[in-house]
Design goal:
The complex is a heterodimer of chains A (307) and B (494).
Chain A (H helix, E strand, L loop, with lengths): L21 H12 L5 H13 L1 E4 L7 H12 L13 E4 L4 H7 L6 E5 L10 H14 L3 E5 L2 H5 L3 H15 L3 E5 L8 H13 L4 E3 L11 H18 L4 E3 L7 H15 L11 E3 L2 H14 L12
Parallel strand pairs in A: 1-2, 1-8, 2-3, 3-4, 4-5, 5-6, 6-7
Chain B lengths: L30 E2 L1 E3 L2 E3 L6 E6 L4 E7 L3 H19 L4 H17 L1 H12 L3 H22 L3 H4 L3 E5 L2 E5 L5 H14 L3 E5 L6 H12 L7 E3 L4 H9 L5 E5 L2 H11 L5 E5 L5 E4 L5 H13 L11 E5 H15 L20 H16 L3 E4 L14 E4 L6 H4 L6 E7 L2 H9 L6 E5 L3 H10 L4 E4 L18 E2 L4 H6 L2 E5 L4
Parallel strand pairs in B: 1-5, 7-8, 7-10, 8-9, 10-11, 12-13, 12-17, 13-16, 15-16, 17-18
Antiparallel strand pairs in B: 2-3, 4-5, 6-20, 11-19, 14-15
């Protein structure tokens, strides 16, 4: 056989995707929320949550000063509590990667960068590829791309697929997270379809949201995406990661997500290598809970650094 | 899905810490007497039997065994209360009492939940989220009807029947008491009720509640005991109506026993419901529905979806997903808030389930059981499914009343309908498809009293419940549930 650049990815057979019943999904999610997580189980979950956070700043007003301080927070979550894990990554715009790299050097915290005309994705393929390559060359370990929701809603599935596959190639060794922006997809059936497209096109992670659109992450959309990951794992043995992002700001909700993750994909996914929370304010709520687990008291928010 | 490379790990790593519901606030007496005429009264023969926790085999209390003379006293008290108080009371006053019962159950919901779980073995999650709230909801619902009966049946003159004798099963002790007592009281009848032998405690707690809210003496009388107590109640000449929920064989005995008498009756008996899953169904949600259908309350549910009919083209995928889901069901201490599968209600029932599992194996079915570790003490059965079953198998035809699912495949809708209807029962059923028109086509062809589409085991007091064929007669719940506690005559101006 002649050698040629064969992309491993192949457009999935969308006709084989099973429908999703929203009411059934809601009921399943309710069950996850009634699990009672206490004592050691809670401590483990809280620390796991911290280690899974992509500490994020994605604002038009981001400056090197802001990003440096965020990176300090990533390194020193809460000095008065010993033995805490660090967060998984900081997530910034491409122009801030250099600053973050400098601030995080000698630390085992990854740098994630959004790319592909985040958050709307309304640009040409070549601009998106150029931006991705720029982010990688700046030192991003992970690329958070957005899919073309317009193409998805117009039914141009192969265009969505091809674009993801092209970005994946441009990522090189950097990990690719594919943001579906589920808040703009309208139905859980479409969430499932977009998940399949992203997974088959080579996503290392699939991610719910940019955080710029409401609703952002919900347990319902996350469950449907986890089920897509699970079915892919059964079919191929490949583990794809999951990142709900936006709107997860309390420990309680984060633990509900971990319960859902555990009961859908099993304990092998309970690692920052396969699950992340895209969040900015979640870390402090987790710290507050951990402090409470330690000394039995809830402290004022002013005792936790806001960066 | 035909090729499965990898299985998920649910066993190692992060596990949930125990989260048991406290029993400290629960007061269970060493011994309970009968509740007759508003007071606790010792059984005349002085006999008591033990009730225990099926999850631990620990003794909980001793319960009075009502004999014939005790049943006589209870019926007499009910008759007096009917004639002197309850039927004469303005209906809106009756409604107030029933509303009070509902509110008092809500106030004491936690206590009732824990007692239901201790005495019956069901997970606290179910007694807390389903049994007790639904019991309160039934009292609320029928309280609302009490002063509006003439609007329920336009053109008819309605009158209460008198004394209702009620016999309830052990699978939903308080909820079944509510299903029976609420419509009877709303219609102006008085009640003598016999709880199941293994699960009398919540009914006796309900008796305490009746005292607390000053329900007039004799309006509800509670006679605990075994089947002889039930027989004495059924045969009592001064009982006007028999309401029974339980097995089909006992239902038949009751019909024999009251044949030729004036007694009205409603019977809610066994079932062998089929859940029908079409290839175009939302498969992941169908798996949840199947789990809720057969493993809810350890399968001790007359309307349980104990048969699964799955379209052949998706059978393998569905069964794979079902087996995987079964691995995540948490079996253990029913008082733990994380428990999904509790204890089997009694040793007798466990033996029966086990004998059916052996029958399934003998019939050539392929058994799969979740690998949940069973506690050393108590009565336990892991979630169990049999694939490769056929219509001729006993596992497909007979009610097991346990967490055992018989799975068959089908090719076309008409084959599914034929198979679903082809048992002696007709209590409930389920249909799973994304196609609305198919839901209407299939459900209208099923001969079952309750049919769910893309869900299962959903209950509401406004919705009538009851069976076709050997699943019983009469309906409970809704307006229909009123009619079995009333006599109706068409009035002249109708």
């Amino acid at each position: 056989m002649a050698t040629m650049a064969i992309s491993k990815s192949k457009l999935p057979d969308l006709s084989k995707i099973k429908p999703v019943d929203e009411i059934g999904v809601n009921e399943r999610v309710e069950r996850f929320c009634t699990r009672s997580i206490k004592n050691e189980a809670k401590n483990t979950a809280l620390k796991l949550t911290l280690s899974m956070i992509d500490l994020t700043t994605l604002e038009g007003q981001d400056t090197p000063g802001k990003v440096k301080q965020l990176c300090q927070k990533a390194i020193h979550l809460h000095s008065s509590l010993p033995g805490l894990p660090s967060v998984a990554a900081v997530c910034v715009y491409p122009t801030m990667i250099g600053t973050a790299r400098e601030a995080l050097k000698n630390h085992d915290i990854r740098i994630a960068s959004v790319a592909t005309a985040f958050p709307s994705g309304m640009s040409t393929r070549s601009v998106k590829l150029m931006e991705t390559k720029y982010a990688v060359s700046e030192g991003a370990d992970e690329i958070d791309m957005v899919i073309s929701r317009g193409a998805m809603l117009a039914g141009e599935y192969s265009a969505v697929f091809d674009e993801i596959a092209a970005i994946k190639e441009a990522c090189g060794t950097a990990h690719l997270k594919v943001i579906l922006e589920t808040g703009e997809l309208g139905t859980l059936d479409r969430v499932r379809k977009a998940s399949e497209l992203a997974i088959h096109a080579g996503a290392d992670f699939i991610k719910t949201s940019t955080g710029k659109i409401q609703p952002a992450a919900t347990m319902q959309t996350t469950l449907v995406m986890l089920q897509a990951i699970r079915d892919h794992y059964h079919a191929t043995g490949n583990k794809v990661g999951m990142k709900p992002a936006g709107g997860i700001s309390t420990s309680k909700l984060a633990i509900h997500y971990l319960v859902m993750l555990r009961e859908t994909l099993g304990n092998d996914w309970l690692t920052p290598a396969l699950f992340r929370f895209g969040a900015s304010s979640l870390a402090n709520d987790v710290l507050m809970q951990l402090q409470r687990q330690t000394d039995g008291l809830y402290q004022s928010p002013d005792y936790f650094s806001k960066d | 899905m035909t090729e499965t490379h990898s299985s998920l790990n649910f066993d190692t790593g992060w596990q949930y810490a125990p989260a048991p519901e406290s029993t400290e606030h629960i007061q269970i007496d060493k011994q309970y007497k009968l509740f007759i005429n508003g007071e606790f009264s010792a059984p005349q023969q002085g006999k008591y039997f033990t009730t225990s926790n099926p999850a631990t085999e620990e003794k909980l209390s001793r319960i009075a065994q009502a004999g014939k003379s005790d049943v006589n006293r209870a019926v007499r008290a009910a008759r007096n209360a009917y004639e002197q108080t309850w039927s004469k009371m303005p209906s809106k006053e009756r409604a107030k009492y029933i509303f009070r019962i509902a509110r008092a159950i809500q106030e004491r919901a936690r206590e009732f939940s824990v007692i239901e779980t201790l005495d019956g073995g069901k997970p606290i999650r179910e007694s807390r989220d389903i049994d007790i709230p639904l019991a309160a909801a039934h009292f609320f619902y029928y309280a609302g009807w009490a002063d509006k009966l003439k609007y329920a049946f336009p053109g008819a003159q309605v009158k209460p029947l008198g004394v209702a004798g009620q016999i309830i099963p052990w699978n939903f002790p308080l909820l079944m008491a509510a299903w029976k007592i609420a419509p009877a009281l709303a219609c102006g009848n008085t009640v003598v009720i016999k709880p199941a032998e293994t699960t009398s405690l919540s009914a006796l707690k309900l008796a305490e509640l009746f005292q607390d809210i000053d329900l007039p003496p004799g309006v509800v009388n509670i006679v605990t005991g075994d089947s002889s107590t039930g027989a004495a109640l059924v045969e009592h000449p001064d009982v006007d109506k028999i309401a029974f929920t339980g097995s089909t064989s006992v239902g038949k005995q009751i019909m024999h026993s009251i044949a030729g008498s004036h007694k009205k009756y409603s019977l809610e008996l066994g079932g062998k419901a089929a859940n029908i899953v079409f290839a175009d169904a939302p498969i992941d949600q169908a798996v949840e529905g199947i789990v809720n259908a057969i493993f809810f309350n350890q399968g001790h549910v007359c309307c349980a979806g104990s048969r699964l009919l799955v379209q052949e083209s998706v059978a393998e995928e569905l069964c794979f997903k079902l087996r995987e889901r079964m691995q995540t069901l948490i079996l253990g201490d029913p008082l733990d808030k994380n428990t999904d599968i509790g204890a089997i209600n009694s040793k007798v029932q466990l033996d029966k389930i086990q004998s059916y599992i052996n029958i399934g194996i003998d019939e050539g079915g392929q058994i799969y059981q979740s690998s949940a570790k069973l506690p050393n003490k108590g009565y336990w059965c892991p979630p169990t499914i049999f694939t490769g079953m056929a219509q001729s198998n006993r596992l497909v035809q007979e009610e097991i009343f346990g967490p055992v699912l018989a799975i068959q495949s089908f090719r076309t809708a008409s084959e599914a309908i034929d198979k679903a209807n082809n048992t002696a029962y007709g209590l409930s059923g389920g249909v799973w498809t994304d196609k609305g028109s198919k839901i209407f086509k299939v459900t209208s062809a099923l001969r079952a009293g309750v049919i769910w589409a893309n869900t299962f085991n959903k209950f509401d007091p406004a919705s009538p419940f009851g069976g076709y064929k050997e699943s019983g007669m009469g309906r409970e719940g809704g307006i229909q549930g009123l009619s079995t506690y009333l006599s109706m005559e068409l009035s002249n101006d109708a």
